[in-house]
Amino acid sequence: MNDDSAEPRSAEILLVEDSASDVLITRAAFERARVIVNLHHVENGAECMAFLRKERQYSQVPTPDLILLDLNMPVMDGREVLAALVKDDKLNHLPVVVLTTSEDERDVLSMYKLRCSSYITKPVDLRQFIRVVQSITDHWFKIVVRPPAD
Amino acid sequence: MRTSASVPQKTQIDPVDIMSEKREQPAEWFRAAVEAAPTAMLIVDSQGRIVLSNNEAERQFAYQRDELLGQSVDRLVPDRFRHQHALQRADFHACPAARRMGMGRDLLGRRRDGSEFPAEVGLTPLETDNGLFVVIAIVDITARKELEDAQQKLSDELEQRVAERTSELARANEALERSNVELQQFAYIASHDLQTPLRGISGFAQLLQEDYQGRFDERADTYIERIVVEVKRLKTLIEDLLTYSRVESRARPFEPTDLGRVFDEVVATLEPSIADSRGEVTRGDLPIVAGDASQLAHLLQNLIENALKYHGDEPPRVHVSAKTNGSEWTVAVRDNGIGIDAKHHGRIFEIFRRLHTQEQYPGTGIGLAVCRRIVTRHDGNIWLKSSVGQGSEFFFTLADKLTLADKGNVEP
Questions:
Q1: Which domains does chain A have, with CATH numbers?
Q2: How many CB atoms lie within 10 A of CB A104?
Q3: Phi and psi, residue A128, nearest 5°
Q4: Residue B70's domain spans which residues?
Q5: Could you tell me the pTM of the whole model?
Q6: How confident is the model over B146-176, as pLDDT tens digits?
Q7: B residues 211-240 near A, CB within 8 Å?
Q8: Is the domain of B171 the same as that of B262?
Q9: Of B223, B250, B277, which one is at a domain's C-terminal end?
Q10: Cα distance from A104 to chain B (closest Cα, Å)?
Q11: Testing the interface with B: which of A104, A106, A132, A150 to mutate, by most B Cβ within 10 A?
């Protein structure tokens, strides 16, 4: 997804998540994973679609390299976002990592046969969360590694 | 008596003889036979008048003989049937043949006092030179009717009870399905709704610990550390509870499963902890059984892990073996560990039952409860033989056949 000849740039990630705690922890995990990303955040699926279509206040936002999508949200949930993305020719190429709280959710999702690039079960333990974030960035981006803090 | 085989009973006995006072022997014999018959008998003439009655008839209808003779037979049926009876009598006279009266209908006799009784009535025409007579035999079927009614009532009751039981069963089935759905919902709530706030608490406590260690005072650091430790424990409890509920909610159909292979895989998984404890886990010949392979692996793993965990001064020695009685395999997991006091044997399989403090042996007390749940789903039993200092031997049974109805997937 990245061109080796291009100037390294930080990855643009859109986090679609309604839990303020999870947003803070996800941000902290990205920081600790020592990767530089621009983490954009919206609170539900409807905002997510507006962001991707650059509507309203989102006219100037970049197209994200990756969408981290929570499943259970008010207004428009993750399943509905997946369904809407599939139908949109301009957006259906975007990689989506679905964040689930449990493997049971993943089972439910597979029953609906919804398209997404991968599933990540959000770990309760912060260390594991950081490892997960690390693996996401390792997998999806040419990473910009920050120098060690000390 | 002059008799003839001709049909219908064109009798050689002239009723006029009977009615007359000629006292010829055949007529006398006939009268004696009729008189002694255990059945009520009447002879009526073509007008339906009673020309002869016997003792039993008088007893049944509670009339004196002279009250019957010469009277219309119609008076022996209830008033409300009298008109119809007269018409039917006329029909019979038009086409006389020996038959049972009132086929398919309940006939009623009327006693002198107006009371009624169910009766079975046979009619035999007697053609004579003096016209058609009819021999009527009447059997009081009160007792039989009562028996029939009682049988009918019994059979109705039985049917009703079957219907009641069937609907009870349907209700129980419904309740079972509901409780299954509730269990699934519970598993979902435990895995999702409880985990979300837990992730928040855990995450922020860890962030505090990592970013602010030493910036409050020592006591604050201890408190934060306790939060991190307790949240981890809560997380383990929730995961264990989920494991327990998944024995049913994630059940897979039974298939022939090689317990020997299951054992080998489990031991491979446990290799690090076996090495850590300098233990040894061995097995004898293990059978192929019908079961849920991943659950049987879980079962063996829990038992072997326990055997490794609760060891004494000696390095743990664990041996798994099996023997059959032809219908059932008994699998034994024997160790040389610390053993379990007999007073705990009864409750050791209960969920969250623990015999040790977290400091002695950490754990949530779910392992053996899951074992029992798995064995129960496989229609087996689980128990142990153990005493303190003598090691423990856990046993469980599995059917010795390769096709086994899965209780979790009962055919409708």
A1: 11-140 (3.40.50.2300)
A2: 21
A3: -65, -35
A4: 15-140
A5: 0.54
A6: 998 899 999 999 999 999 999 999 998 888 8
A7: 231-232, 235
A8: no
A9: B250
A10: 7
A11: A104
